Amino acid sequence: MAVDLQRGGPQPGTVLRAIRLMLWSIVHFVFYFMQQVAELLAPLLLVLGLGWWALPRLVDAITTHEATADQQARDILNSISGTIPHTLVLAGHSLTPTGLIFDGLLLMALAALGATISAVAARGM
């Protein structure tokens, strides 16, 4: 901070620059943190959703392919296919495979937005 020796205090422009720097630092921190969380969770949700979406289809494909083979294997595969849920309700939130895929893609978009805003904030500092 530059000090005006005649007036004995900081110059008026210096205080405004310090406030501006502090605000841009907070914006940079918030969006960079948001970006890190989104980059961590996005692939996890996307992979879980795709796996959950594909699993019943794979089991059904195996079941129909094995229909001419062993009856006992077909019964086991049918019981496994019936136990895969279409929706999970956790703490009042309904989770579906397509919802997890959409949330993963949405988090990827949020990470890209956070990176963009964080870069703009860094230039503003």
From TrEMBL:
This is AI-2E family transporter. It comes from Lichenicoccus roseus. The chain crosses the membrane at residues 15-33, 40-55, 100-122. The lineage of its organism: Bacteria, Pseudomonadati, Pseudomonadota, Alphaproteobacteria, Acetobacterales. Keywords: Membrane, Transmembrane, Transmembrane helix.
